[in-house]
């Protein structure tokens, strides 16, 4: 049984892959068994979805004749199954810590498949990156000096990118402005142990237009580097490709109809992720490749004619539809004549958008514990008319949804609430062991020849 919670008339049901929808409908009793067995919240992963996402992006790049390298942004999710799948289909991995690097290596990545990003790499991280010849995106002149200091004598040249901070991002602490890039190039020209492979940037926000502008700035620096005798081979445009979580028209209508009364806080959050944006990641990439750079050349033309590889590090876009997070309801508590709070086993650290003063604007799915008896009231008609969702901690802020939600069938202890499409940061960015609750279980879902779902461990060790 699958029932959406909703703002009546302005529902935001999640888009679901067939395998996920099937689990929530045909195999709901199996899901209830899994939660009994592995605890709540339970994070379920479909690595196959990452393969499909990767194939879609590759299709756009290939269609446009652009040589490319896609690095899966491993920071988006701690799942080993997702990293293993990305490597299995020939993607690289973007690592931002020693531990992501070690997992990638244990899953079979050689250094040539790894790019390391982030502004605060430690000496130990540098040493292991150099040890395997991974590509290092250097964030600052200071990092360049540290890296040079960490190079062992007589290694083969260590490949580096220089991370650009485009001129319209002057408040960012990531990357360096064009003059600092020029300074690093001058330093590199006297340094035989390092090989300049190209430029990198990663921008916040989800607009392809800002990437096109940054590329124009990068193109000037690539020409400058060539004049200095370097042979750059790539520009890495980072991540930031969008996901469509919900139908764009429903999303637009929902935003337009929102009122302060929809939130228990009496306030509409100032910003939301664009959950129902107009473009899929593939549309976005297509638009970027068509965007105009200098002299009327498109981005695709630029890369082809300059013989450059377009690298990218999508995290969220590759994690699209790869996961759900399942919470068991522990109690439904009345707050007033028609308002309730639904407590779940688990916390908002496992569904964390509220910690960013925002909201995961996708209706959770209500899976009743057993066949719904005719006697179970409809809550749109009877109290509680609406409810918000809270976690099991003693923190007042531990709220999974500040939105008042309505239910077509009264939720009860033992029922499940399923957050769909949580693979992109939502499910595990902030997870922790507050109150010494164990970390949520995470397992991969596979299907047998008859389409019956089963679970496999999601560990680095698992074959
Ligand atoms: C350097 C870098 N690359 C890639 C990503 C992935 O971004 P997204 O998940 O939006 O694709 C991030 C995210 O913070 C990042 O900092």
UniProtKB/TrEMBL annotation:
It comes from Sinorhizobium alkalisoli. GO terms for biological process: lysine biosynthetic process via diaminopimelate. The modification N6-(pyridoxal phosphate)lysine is found at residue 75. GO terms for molecular function: diaminopimelate decarboxylase activity. Residues 65-247 form the Orn/DAP/Arg decarboxylase 2 N-terminal domain. SUPFAM superfamilies: Alanine racemase C-terminal domain-like, PLP-binding barrel. This is Decarboxylase. PANTHER family: DIAMINOPIMELATE DECARBOXYLASE (PTHR43727), GROUP IV DECARBOXYLASE (PTHR43727:SF2). Pfam families: Orn_Arg_deC_N.
